[in-house]
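Thread title: Can someone regenerate the structure for this chain?

I was given the following input by a collaborator and told the matching structure tokens would be attached. They weren't. Posting the sequence so someone can regenerate them.
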Amino acid sequence: MDKAGEFAKYVGTLSETLAHADRVGPMHDYCRGLMLSGDRKSVEPMAARVAPQRAGAKHQSMHHFVAKAEWSDAALLAAVRQQVLPALGTIEAWIVDDTGYPKKGKHSVGVARQYCGQLGKQDNCQVAVSLSMANERASLPIDYRLYLPREWAEDGKRLRKAEVPASVAFATKVQLALEQLQRARSEQVPAGVVLSDAGYGNDANFRDGISALGLTYAVGIQASTTVWAAAHEPLPPRGAWGRGRPGTHLRRDRTHQPINVKSLAHELPGGAWRPVSWRAGSAGSLASRFARVRVRAAHRNEVRDQEWLVIEWPLGETGPTKYWLSTLPRSIAFKELVRLIKLRWRIERDYQELKQELGLGHYEGRNWRGFHHHATLTIAAYGFLMRARLTGRSKKNAALRATDIPLRRPPQPNNFIPRGSPRAS
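Best answer:
Regenerated them for you:
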């Protein structure tokens, strides 16, 4: 079967989740539009590429499908997962992250002045939290949810105008991420070590929530995070005195204080540091200098289990650059620990390809349903590309290109005029 036929079969299988036969055609058109060449992957230009001689009617059906039709994002994403997982293979990690899309104006759902990773600064944007399953070969988003800033979540008028479901309440990004992890566990997604940056990993409740789900983690933390380690040990809990119960909390005094991980890194002897390489890059092996120490996180003086503190201090740098806490086994090899921590790079590849190749951030509608439907369909198209690459002969880590799949673009009629352009005289 050729790639176009495989694509039609793939979309046909996914369309079984739509619960209505009339939605199958628009779904095929939408996914096909995402994969055809073109700078913008919003509804109008995609409709013109898919059916240039019937662009108006095609635009109407595709817009209704993505912005109004009541089909389940969760069901479709689960179907994508089932189609792609056999090609993806053994899952090593679940990656938690968020991504931002610059947006002008104030009416698109969730748009606010907040940090936008794409711009590297605070600006007007939308932000979504995602969970991906990953290994060294590839990764696939399996959950995706828009973050609603508090100014949105507490403004009933804006919520109604953007058609946000009444069940949606304010939740922090950490809370959204934990909900996604809980759903993945309940749906029996093959488990992996949870990876995240310090925006999530620095939150003790996030780390505790992961452990409560029976998962291990390797998450970034900030340099100011404090731990009990080596010479920096707490006083034991108070013993029983009279009729009182024995204490349960660790104690501090002037000589028993936790230490921040940056200071701890500077106290480590030279022998604690070793060079570690974790994967092959485009210009050779990726390597740096690391140390690892068994520590207890210093949180509310609770007696917490020991875990790994991993520190990266590249040669030539004046100080450490990154820190992680991990509940991976004490017996894990140092190189394997670093390799799993560094596997978070896959999410950067996810977003690069989803945005640049398939237009993840190109949706121009303003409502809640359309935002999520567009993202789900983008992930569905991405899943097909990934599966084609993994089962084909292409290079192991080659970038996914929608144009690698030979989907034919219909020829434009000679008198074609794009919607919104001045009419020919």
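The chain has two domains: 3-195+348-404, 202-232+253-342.
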